[in-house]
Specification:
Shape: globular
Number of strands: 10
Strand order of the largest sheet: 6-2-1-7-8-10-9
Structural class: alpha/beta
Order of helices and strands: HHHHHEHEHEHHEEHEHEHEEE
Distance between the termini: 44 Å
């Protein structure tokens, strides 16, 4: 498909179907026909930026795979990164109590009373979620001074990971951060923006990974708590099940998984056990169980 300055860019139905199948196989994300306008506009941006001129030339280069930056740029265009600090904060309440006390009790039983406690945020987008976890621990978890905690964060989008590492945020992202916390953990960065302090940025390790990529996910191990919120809703049944099994694999037996408020593991896979906490539902990897 080509376009001129006066003719809008639009994939044919056959081109859309070929693209949709390719992107699904590579990422697990499936776009319905109702997303045509969204997909067309972002593919148009990728085609023009690549210099290939036409969808056919660009898609051919994409599929050959000798220009990996094409797939990364496409993924960055097509993934949604809507987030802010302290989003769905009741789950962070649950993390502080009862989840972390239970994790420490299990560590003591297993002979590692001082940690490390390992927490994973995936997808982390521009970093608001993992940094929110770090701030809540610093502000409200008394054991933070004596227990080693590792916070890891991962996303498929390289652009948002770069922004997360930089840690600069505007008013929309910070709207729920209490003023005393803002004063303690951020500094003014100009143009109405604030940058999170270097000590907190250094406490979070960022990775690029797709939750549906099983070989890549095998590099992550022994996590006590995983936040994987508001991403499974974009997957079909097969991709959701693969993601669930990969999350299961990165967790320690007895570890806790938090999903978004509109997501339910019971509709995806039976390998996790629903755990009703005072603040809501979490999902636990059973001790000794396998998918």
């Amino acid at each position: 498909m080509t376009s001129t300055a006066t003719e809008p860019f639009r994939l044919s139905d056959a081109e859309f179907e070929r693209f949709r199948e390719y992107f699904y196989k590579r990422t697990g994300i499936q776009f319905t026909p109702g997303k045509r306008y969204f997909v067309d506009k972002r593919i148009e941006a990728c085609v023009r930026a690549s210099g290939h001129g036409t969808f056919a030339a660009w898609f051919g280069a994409l599929r050959v795979g000798d220009q990996p930056q094409l797939l990364q740029e496409l993924t960055n265009q097509l993934t949604v990164n809507e987030t802010y600090f302290l989003r769905e904060d009741y789950q962070f309440d649950a993390l502080l109590d009862p989840v972390l006390p239970r994790v420490l009790a299990e560590h003591t039983r297993a002979g590692r009373p001082n940690g490390p406690v390992k927490i994973l945020s995936l997808p982390c987008s521009t970093g608001e979620e993992p940094y929110s976890i770090a701030i809540r621990l610093l502000e409200e978890w008394p054991q933070i001074d004596r227990v080693d905690v590792e916070i890891h964060a991962a996303d498929i989008d390289s652009d948002v990971l770069a922004r997360a590492r930089h840690g600069s945020y505007g008013a929309r992202s910070l709207q729920r951060v209490p003023k005393p916390w803002l004063d303690r953990h951020f500094h003014a960065a100009g143009a109405g923006r604030y940058q999170i302090d270097e000590a907190i940025r250094g406490a979070v390790t960022f990775h690029r990974v797709n939750v549906c990529d099983t070989p890549a996910m095998r590099k992550f191990t022994d996590f006590d708590v995983v936040f994987c919120r508001n991403v499974l809703i974009y997957f079909d049944e097969l991709s959701s099940r693969r993601a669930a099994e990969n999350l299961f694999g990165v967790m320690r037996p007895g570890g806790y998984l938090f999903l978004g408020h509109a997501e339910s593991m019971s509709r995806i896979s039976p390998i996790f056990v629903p755990e009703r906490l005072p603040q809501g539902i979490a999902y636990q990897r059973p001790t000794g169980a396998r998918p």
